[in-house]
Amino acid sequence: MTPDRSDCRTGIVGLGNIGQYHAERLRDLDVPLVGGMDVAAEARTRFARRYDVDVYEDHNDLYDVVDAVIITTPNKYHEEYAIDAFGRNLHVLLEKPLAHSIESAERIADAAVDSSGYCMVGFNNRFANTVQIVKNRIDRGDLGEVGHIEANYIRRRGIPGRGSWFTRREIAGGGSLIDLGVHAIDLALYLFGYPDATEVNGVTRGEFGGREEYAYLDMWAEDEGAAGFDVDDSASAFVRCDRNRTISLEVAWATNRPANHEFFVRGTEAAARFDLLDGDLSFHSASKVGPDHLENTSIETRQNDTHTEEQKAFFDAISDGDYENEAISDSIERALKVQQIIDAIYQSSEEGATVSIGE
Predict the structure, then answer these.
(1) Which helix (H) or strand (E) element contains residue 98?
(2) Are residues 292 and 254 in the same domain?
């Protein structure tokens, strides 16, 4: 039985590309989209024309007419819009990362505690069919004790618009690490069951975005050049968690190597390899049943729209009144763990040393 999602009047804060991406999926899921808010008049006009809804310059006016909001603004502004929504007990789907800084993220987490609204932070890649298959096999013990995850999210050339807010530390809080690395770290922690990280050693680099001559094939926004580019375009890190579980991380917007979106999940009984973007999935093990042999099994499944699945989980939990839903419960706390690791990697890079977490 399909849950009734028609009673949750929903608005979008931030009407750029991601906001429109969410709007399309709301329509597909029969969630009533009743309005949008953006500080830019052009964005409001475009959104109103495309979706035939009211648009607002002040988010408080939007909050007067909705039950839930999807916040897709640049990272620095998550705090203002999320905390005001929590204060009104609205349900909040907040695009990743939680915030542009650890201090802002902590304030958002504190405000969420006192709200009766549901909150989900938008780590959509967890909802990929391939990820769910791996998670199910971990949970039923097929991989044994999982001790290490290798997480790669590497673009050869993929800076998302030099000169945009993505490449300005004051607004974004960082570059490739806070944009792509949050996905990779969240997935690794999700597959582990969200252990506590204990220490981090990492290096962030800005090697390509600051060049006057930056060779690339395409970009998601106009290239406004190197001026003002003050974020990382790649990062390497090693994260130690409790019970000696570890994560090795490689992320990049730009680097001189082929793109790579592979995750390797190593367990005592088997390992899994999956590609985050193209859906390739395989399991690897060894056996003494008969002659000693190695087993490599490829899995085929459908590719699915992870943002649609994310929205389903959010609105179905609201419809069912199910705060214990795995997608909703502890979402803020888990996003804060990701933010703590991100912050520790930046600190480790600046100090040239291992950084302890939680001390």
Answers:
(1) none
(2) yes
